[in-house]
Specification:
Elements (H helix, E strand, L loop, with lengths): L11 E4 L2 E4 L10 H4 L4 H20 L21 H16 L6 H15 L16 H61 L4 H52 L9 H18 L3 E8 L2 H8 L1 H18 L6 E6 L2 E7 L3 H16 L3 E2 L4 E2 L3 E7 L6 H17 L5 E5 L2 E4 L5
Parallel strand pairs: 8-9
Antiparallel strand pairs: 1-2, 3-5, 3-8, 4-5, 6-7, 9-10
Helix pairs in contact: 2-5, 3-4, 5-6, 8-9, 9-10
Length: about 425
C-alpha cells in the first residue's frame, strides 16, 4: 500500500557487481521521519560504506569508458538502476539530517539528482553532464562527514565547558566558605579567651565577634547569590540551545511538519487525555495516491513539490492549535485531532480530499494533479495507542483498496467509505 521510502534501502552500498548490505545499517523498512533520529556513528559507518563504493566505482572505470573530448552524448557507466537508487537514498538520508534549508542539505540533494538523472553536479553550475562524477561525489561526502563531525565536537565542547564552569564555581564557593569558616573560628577563639578576662574586655570582644560574624555571613550570602545567578544564566542559555536542537530534530526538513518521532510521542498522551477527560479524539492517516509514479514520470523535484503542497494544505484545513499534523514517513501523513468524533473526522477529511483535487503542480512537461486517500478512526476509552493506530492504518488500507481518492472510517469492526467516493 505504501510507497518505498528512501531509508528502506539506505542500508545498501554500491559495488560493481551488485548490492551488499552495510553491516551496521538499520534493517527493515524505515521512513523519512526516522532519518532525523539516526545516530552519528551509524550515519558515519553507512557514509563510509558509500565512500568505499564510490572509490570502487571510480577505480573500475577504464579509459575506454570515459567520454572523448567534446562528446555531447551521455556515457553509460553500466551501474544498475537499483544501485544508483541506493546511493541517492543514502545521500537523501544524509540530507534529512543536515538541518532545515541548510546549504549542506541543498548540495546533498543536488548530488542525489546528479546520480539519478544526470543533472549537473553542484560544482559544475549549469553545465550539461555527460557522465556521473563519482570522484567529485566521493570527495564531497568525505568533506561533509568531516565537517559534520567537527560540528558535533563543537556542541559537545560547549556542553563540557558548561559542566566545567559549574565545577569551577562550586570549587570557588567551597574555598571561599573554608576561608570564611576559618575567620569565624578564629574570632570565636578570641571570644573564648576573653571569657576569662574582665567584663569590659569580654563585652568589647563579644561586640567585635558579632560584627565580624555578621560580615562573614553577608559575604557568604553575597557570594552564593552571585554564584547562583551566574549558573542560572548559563543554564538558561544552555536550555534554550538544547530546546532549539530538540525542536530542529522534531521537524521534517522538507514539509516543515512535525515528524514521526513527535507523532509516536504524542499519540499515547492523546489516548490518556481521551480516557481521563472522556472527550472524543480522532486519528487520521493520509497517503498520497500513486506517489511513486509521480516520482518516476515527473521526477523527484515534482514529488517533493507534491509533498510540500499537501503538507501546506493539511495545515490550512486542520488549523486548530490542538491538532497535530505530522509527516509519518515517505508519502504518508498522520493527524491527531482532539475533541473530534469519527463524524467530524470524516467531514474534515472529505474537505481535504476536495482541496487536494484542486491542486495544480507545475511539472517539467505538464501540470501534475494529485489525490490522497484517508483512513479515519475514533479512539476508544482506555485503549492503547497501538490499537488505535492499527485501526486507522487498516482504514487507510481499505481506502486504497476501494479505488483511492476517498475516505474510509473504521469504528469498532465496521468500515464505511465516504459518500462522495462511493
Amino acid at each position: 500500500m505504501h510507497s518505498t521510502s528512501p531509508l528502506s534501502i539506505a542500508g545498501y552500498w554500491v559495488r560493481p557487481r551488485g548490492l551488499r548490505r552495510c553491516v551496521d545499517s538499520p534493517s527493515g523498512g524505515g521512513r523519512a521521519g526516522d532519518a532525523a533520529a539516526t545516530t552519528l556513528p551509524r550515519r558515519l559507518k553507512c557514509v563510509g560504506a558509500l565512500t568505499i563504493s564510490l572509490s570502487v566505482n571510480v577505480r573500475h572505470r577504464t579509459n575506454s569508458e570515459l567520454p572523448p573530448p567534446g562528446a555531447g552524448q551521455i556515457v553509460p557507466d553500466g551501474i544498475p538502476d537499483a544501485a544508483l537508487d541506493a546511493v541517492a537514498a543514502i545521500l537523501r538520508a544524509l540530507r534529512d539530517t543536515a538541518g532545515r534549508e541548510s546549504d549542506a542539505a541543498g548540495r546533498l540533494e543536488a548530488w542525489a539528482r546528479h546520480i539519478l538523472v544526470l543533472t549537473a553536479p553542484p560544482r559544475a553550475g549549469d553545465a550539461v553532464s555527460i557522465g556521473r562524477d563519482w570522484v567529485g561525489l566521493s570527495s564531497h561526502v568525505v568533506a561533509y562527514v568531516r565537517e559534520d563531525r567537527a560540528a558535533v565536537s563543537r556542541s559537545i565542547g560547549e556542553l563540557q565547558d558548561t559542566v566545567w564552569l559549574v565545577i569551577e564555581r562550586l570549587s570557588q564557593a567551597i574555598v571561599g566558605d573554608a576561608a570564611s569558616d576559618a575567620c569565624a573560628s578564629g574570632q570565636l577563639e578570641r571570644l573564648r579567651a576573653a571569657a576569662g578576662g574582665s567584663a569590659a574586655e569580654l563585652k568589647a570582644t563579644a561586640l567585635e565577634t558579632v560584627a565580624r560574624l555578621s560580615e562573614i555571613l553577608d559575604e557568604k550570602s553575597t557570594r552564593q547569590l552571585q554564584l547562583a545567578r551566574e549558573l542560572g544564566e548559563r543554564v538558561d542559555i544552555l536550555k534554550v540551545e538544547l530546546e532549539d536542537i530538540r525542536r530542529e530534530a522534531d521537524i521534517d526538513p522538507l514539509t516543515k511538519l512535525w515528524n514521526r518521532g513527535v507523532f509516536e510521542r504524542e499519540l499515547p498522551r492523546a489516548m490518556q487525555v481521551r480516557t481521563l477527560l472522556d472527550e472524543p479524539a480522532c486519528l487520521a492517516m493520509v497517503d498520497i495516491d500513486g506517489f511513486k509514479q509521480i516520482n518516476d514520470v515527473h521526477g523527484h523535484t515534482t514529488g517533493d513539490d507534491a509533498l510540500a503542497a499537501i503538507a501546506s494544505t493539511l495545515v490550512r484545513y486542520f488549523p486548530r492549535r490542538s491538532d497535530l499534523v505530522t509527516r509519518f514517513g515517505g508519502d504518508e501523513f498522520a493527524l491527531i485531532l482532539p475533541a473530534a468524533t469519527a463524524g467530524d473526522g470524516r467531514r474534515l477529511a472529505e474537505r481535504l480530499l476536495a482541496a487536494v483535487r484542486a491542486l495544480e503542480l507545475p511539472g517539467p512537461r505538464e501540470t501534475v494533479r494529485v489525490t490522497v486517500s484517508v483512513g479515519v478512526t475514533e479512539a476508544l476509552p482506555g485503549e492503547s495507542a497501538d490499537s488505535c493506530f492499527r485501526r486507522a492504518d487498516r482504514a487507510l488500507y481499505e481506502a486504497k483498496a476501494r479505488g483511492r481518492d476517498r475516505v474510509v472510517v473504521i469504528a469498532g469492526e465496521s468500515a464505511t467509505p465516504s459518500a462522495a467516493a462511493a
